TrEMBL record:
Recorded name of the encoding gene: gpsA
Pfam families, per the entry: NAD_Gly3P_dh_C, NAD_Gly3P_dh_N
Protein name in UniProt: Glycerol-3-phosphate dehydrogenase [NAD(P)+]
Family recorded in the similarity comment: Belongs to the NAD-dependent glycerol-3-phosphate dehydrogenase family.
Highest taxon above the source species: Bacteria
Amino acid sequence: MKIAILGAGAFGTALAVALSVKGPVTLWGRRIGWRGENPRLPGIPLPEAVAVTDDPAAAMGCDTMLLAMPAQALGGFLAEHGPALDGKMLVSTAKGIDLRRLTGPSALIAEACPAARIAVLTGPSFAADIARGLPTALTLACADPATGQALQHALSTPVLRLYRTTDVTGAELGGALKNVIAIAAGVVIGARLGDSARAAIITRGFAEMTRLAGRLGARPETLTGLSGLGDLTLTCTSQQSRNFRFGHALGAGADFDAATTVEGVATARAVARLADRIDQDMPIAAMVARLADGLVSVDNALEHLMSRPLKEE
């Protein structure tokens, strides 16, 4: 199976490094100004088996492609390259909800590439850990069991273990929604509200995730797995998470690197719109969207959440 990774950011590069132990990998990026080592992954040299290119044609000959780009960039990429990707096995690693369509990555791919076999790779992982060969377990979601099984074997390595599911909706929503809750957890710690408050945000945030995912057809067990609870736990408790760091800066009233992609911000906005559309209560997600847009202060957000009507858990 010839593998190409489209998107040469930290995560795409880390996957290329990890998968190169199984054979040659083509790594494509739109603008690659580096050779030998991606500055987003310092200290991780690229193996000889990874061929880096900015020519899309060099990657299109592969039958399996991992789309390792931010959720909000995926639609534009597919509009430009969709016909060349159709009919191939396409694996999305994006963790977000498209702001324009209010759908996950797999729906965008299916619309642009109707003959493609589509899967989603998600779960608790940091690029640096994967690139360094640290043990990592992920979820591979594919509606077609045969395709999912083929991809599971092709993309698993001795230190990268993939668990298979057919619940694409649940896997996508777990990966997307946990970024929103990670921002909220970061706000709590940045504002020095304490670990008890963070535990409450994680728990109630997970309840929000589960409710929305259920409304949209996800299976409960998917949300309690790697792509939901597992990823939520990781990103709400580590400074390696960009979403957590962004929330921490919000809570502390500090600046944040504007060049750093924070998937949870756009996802929070998308979730707020989606929740309104289907009349689903998502108080934490809605408040994260308002905080990120500067429409409410941290103190006012806390007051609003703490003054909600008392109820059973």
